[in-house]
């Protein structure tokens, strides 16, 4: 009897094939999960703009409908002046530079020339306000004289006149005002002065005027910085700035009435140490939770506008999640409560109100931690696993709860870091309009002059007269609390 052919479907081969397919399926499932997460990350990145991230509004695509950036409720009224609101018009000047009496013209019905009539000036007045810009040259001449004893005497030019031709404080002040406050490029500022006043200036001359102003303002700006160090609450922020073709950082330390700028090649702790102000600051520092600021000896308060944008991004990415919306509502409610308390003259919120906010805060973030657990490395692996943005946000909000809610426990602390962001907006605009700084000395001079002008602007002090006094050697000192 013939033997049956040998079979290849032995039990051990089937088990091996099944094991291989299961491993392949597991590997494919892992790859699919990674790809899906990568797709979600890319979609979230594409969906970010100024309302759900720290990207500036200027980066928003023009074809996309602008997102709402304000939490204010619409009043229902039309824009502009409302019906029956009190109007305002410019008052007449009592001492005009010129007066013109309009003469009588034409013939009377009787045929007499009206120009021959005796006239009386009527009380009604009308005035035209205009602007006249002109060059004014002052020439200095020295004299000589001989005394009766025969000795010859000669007068000397004032010490400020060191060259045959130079520019006065009024022109220098206007040039610095245009370039450092109105943020016009040097070439366009020179063109403007040439058109209006007929004074031909080179852009290099305007650069020199800016550096001269910075040298004269070094002492007042240093005093501004030391006054900020003594403040109870201060704001800090930084932004990138191109200097000599390289990326540097413009740092700002400010209050509602003081501003101090500094340019440094670094962004982190090395820059803060190099600038030297925050080492002595012992008040409450409001910032956007940049890690370098946490190394300073100050108390800290985090900007909640950043948190709101991150929470909005999470809520839009996964509408099923409820905790981001709940935390947004809680932060806004707490902010409204602090605003109302300050308006009522309160120094602190009532204890039960504060405790209620903290209890809800902890409960909401506990839910967030449940939905976004920490990613752990595979067994036996020591490599660091990248966490999700949601987990990182929840962990930061829980770890730094006191810094996030500082505005609730101390009414001197604002809800956000908008003060510093506003102070950085104009220097950032200068870079967009005028381009980068070609030398570190120019960037440092701009930071010094802009510190002084921003401080005067906050204190409602006229800038141009102050710059004129600066070039006369007597810069007005701003009020230092």
From TrEMBL:
Annotated region (Disordered), positions in chain: 43-92
A Pfam family recorded for this sequence: DUF6444
Basic residues biased stretches: 66-75
InterPro entries: DUF6444 (IPR045618), Transposase-related (IPR052344), Transposase_IS66_central (IPR004291)
Domain of life: Bacteria
Biased composition annotated in UniProt, kind: Basic and acidic residues: 43-52, 81-92
NCBIfam families according to UniProt: transpos_IS66
Protein name: Transposase
Lineage of the organism: Bacteria, Pseudomonadati, Pseudomonadota, Gammaproteobacteria, Chromatiales
């Amino acid at each position: 009897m013939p033997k049956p052919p040998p079979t290849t479907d032995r039990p051990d081969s089937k088990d091996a094939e099944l094991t291989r397919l299961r491993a392949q399926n597991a590997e494919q499932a892992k790859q699919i999960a990674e790809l899906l997460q990568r797709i979600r990350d890319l979609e979230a990145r594409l969906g970010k703009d100024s309302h759900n991230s720290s990207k500036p509004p200027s980066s928003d695509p023009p074809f996309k409908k602008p997102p709402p950036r304000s939490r204010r409720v619409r009043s229902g009224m039309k824009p502009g002046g409302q019906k029956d609101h009190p109007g305002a018009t410019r008052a007449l000047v009592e001492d005009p530079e010129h007066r013109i009496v309009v003469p009588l013209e034409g013939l009377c019905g009787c045929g007499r020339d009206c120009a021959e009539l005796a006239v009386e000036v009527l009380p009604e007045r009308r005035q035209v306000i205009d602007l006249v810009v002109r060059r004014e040259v002052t020439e200095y001449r020295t004299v000589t004289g001989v005394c009766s004893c025969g000795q010859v005497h000669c007068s000397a030019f004032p010490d400020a006149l060191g060259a045959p031709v130079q520019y006065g404080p009024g022109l220098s002040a206007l040039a610095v005002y245009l370039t450092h406050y109105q943020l016009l490029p040097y070439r366009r500022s020179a063109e403007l002065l040439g058109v209006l006043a007929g004074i031909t200036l080179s852009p290099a001359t305007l650069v020199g005027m800016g550096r001269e102003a910075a040298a004269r303002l070094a002492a007042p700006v240093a005093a501004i910085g030391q006054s900020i160090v003594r403040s109870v609450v201060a704001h800090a922020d930084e932004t990138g700035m191109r200097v000599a073709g390289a990326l540097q950082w413009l740092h700002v330390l400010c209050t509602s009435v003081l501003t101090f700028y500094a340019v440094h090649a670094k962004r982190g702790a090395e820059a803060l140490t190099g600038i030297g102000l925050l080492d002595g600051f012992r008040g409450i520092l409001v910032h956007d939770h940049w890690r370098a600021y946490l190394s300073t000896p100050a108390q800290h308060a985090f900007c909640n506008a950043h948190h709101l944008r991150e929470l909005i991004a999470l809520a839009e990415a996964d509408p099923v999640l409820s905790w981001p919306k709940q935390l947004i509502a809680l932060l806004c409610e707490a902010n409204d409560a602090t605003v109302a308390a300050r308006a009522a003259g309160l120094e602190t919120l009532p204890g039960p109100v504060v405790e209620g906010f903290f209890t809800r805060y902890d409960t909401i973030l506990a839910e967030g931690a449940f939905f976004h657990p920490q990613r752990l490395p595979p067994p036996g692996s020591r490599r660091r696993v990248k966490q999700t943005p949601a987990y990182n946000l929840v962990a930061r909000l829980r770890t730094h709860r006191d810094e996030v809610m500082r505005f609730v426990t101390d009414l001197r602390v604002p809800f956000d870091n908008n003060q510093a962001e506003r102070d950085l907006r104009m220097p950032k605009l200068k870079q967009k309009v005028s381009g980068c700084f070609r030398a570190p000395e120019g960037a440092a001079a701009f930071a010094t002059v802009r510190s002084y002008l921003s401080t005067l602007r906050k204190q409602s002090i006229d800038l141009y007269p102050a710059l004129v006094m600066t070039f006369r050697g007597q810069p007005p000192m701003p009020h230092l609390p």
